[in-house]
Amino acid sequence: MTRIFSGVKPTGHLTLGNYLGAVRQWVAADQAPEDALFCVVDLHALTIEHDPARVRRLSREAATLLLAAGLSPEKCTLFVQSHVDEHTRLAYLLECTATDGELRRMIQYKEKAAAAQAAGAGVRLSLLTYPVLMAADILAYDTDEVPVGEDQRQHVELTRDLAVRFNQRYGPTFAVPKVTLPAVAARVMDLQDPTSKMGKSGDAGAGVVFMLDEPGVVRKKVMRAVTDSGDGGVVYDRAARPGVANLLDVLGACTGADPVVLAEGYGGYGALKRDVADAVVELLRPVRERHAELAADPGAVEKVLRAGAERARGLARPVVDRAYRAIGLLER
Ligand code: AQP
After folding, report:
1. Atom 10 of ligand 1, residue of closest alpha carbon
2. Model ipTM?
3. What domains are there in the chain, each with its CATH number?
4. Would residue 169 be called left, alpha or beta, if left means φ above 0 and alpha means ψ between -120 and 50 degrees?
């Protein structure tokens, strides 16, 4: 059976980008006969300036939203990263496998380090090493597939490199996972700045649709989306017309239609935006409603997370022990 692992970090409220790029794929995998593990990767949220109470609140909200989106605790394992010590145990061995140079080449590191410096904050060392902890998250479970959005592709490729390097140096230890991306909307862009990714942290404003936004708020954000100048009508051209291409991608992801074909059906931006707003509102409505029900019973969500951590620990421990032996550490 294929083993799937992926995670979401509680650095903000989950966005439409998280949903279309990742969470929806996870729910689909959860319906199939796969062995899937999904994780709220809270340790990763500590790599940038953070408010402890907010991280705690967002971790709970993320777990509740994943259940509301359709992950079923009977089929998959849902847990919180910091509840399973094996992740940090393994991360150290992988830090002894990765190089400083390859971590400094990570695009997210460069972007987030620059943002931290611009804000006058120090760059936390964990921001540099975070892709190694992410590799540990994945490799601790003999993972076959990692469904993520495009922005995480580079980190999964690093994970593969580290697994291969470790196996070559110390003998076969880790499964080498492959990345899976959604066909459409692998990178949902900010509605106000369609050359930047729609992101949950930072000063998320009018360009970010959150999964829990009220329908009226979603409509307003979509109707105010920046489109492109030029009178070439509605065409799908990511390079020249990124704002319109982004709206078409979102509509394509919501409806299952090809964004290029969708473009042919519109004479102007107004009708396109109305259809996008309707589609997004309808897509998120059941998730929002279910979230409200689940949020009313936080004890039930905590129970799911406790059981998930227990199972995850049982899976990860033998893999991490195997890695400790292989790298030359004495048995306890
Ligand atoms: N805009 C996006 N389009 C498609 N997929 C996306 N993902 C994130 N943003 C988009 C995917 O969602 C999953 C969980 O993301 P994460 O929590 O690991 O955070 P991230 O990748 O760093 O992106 P965010 O949500 O914008 O967070 P911040 O602002 O903290 O960096 C991943 O599979 C990701 O690819």
Report:
1. 17
2. 0.97
3. 4-181+298-327 (3.40.50.620), 215-292 (1.10.240.10)
4. alpha
